[in-house]
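Course assignment 3, question 2. Fill in each field.
Student: A.L.
Task: Predict the tertiary structure for the chain below.
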Amino acid sequence: MKRWYLYLIAVLIGLAIVGYLVIGWKSPSNLTKIWSRDNYATNTERGTEQMVAEAAVPPELLRHRHQQQLRPLAGREDGGKIQDLPNGIYGFSMCNVEALRATRGDTFALEIHKHEGIVFYVGFASDEHIEKYLTRQNNFHLLTSPHPRKGASSLFEIPVEFVSKCEERPVEDGYRFDLFITAIPELQT
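Answer field:
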């Protein structure tokens, strides 16, 4: 009869271990969040949105991320200034590229890559516009989209420093971005 408290302690420790392993309970302050039905619904919706977003990523973009060995922004990096973020990451931003977000969200932002110390706009454009960039022409623009679309189905990346001006243009299903290139630094003598 005197050992009942040892059994109670063992059961409580067991429940704490199961809680930690199964639902990530790390402190008593999370207890109300764990028991809340609202949190379950939010986490379920967030998980579904993430799966849908990942499924919507074009395969050529997934290959490009893999080739560059890029990882998504971590939660603690979300909203961080681009100059403070490490190499080997990708995130999303509108034209200003001051800070990166971990998710594209409902703004249809451009994907931004940072590797080899260079920050890149990544998107889809027409072959004609990409040819202007590849042939190192001066004074042209790239009309780009975050997703492939009719007339803009080729993936490309261009260093942000090559773009003298970026304009966001709302369209029926999001945004297109007009990237103005006046001179590519390699061409200057």
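Instructor remarks: The first helix runs from residue 4 to 23. Residues 31-37, 39-53 have pLDDT under 50 and may be disordered.
Grade: pending
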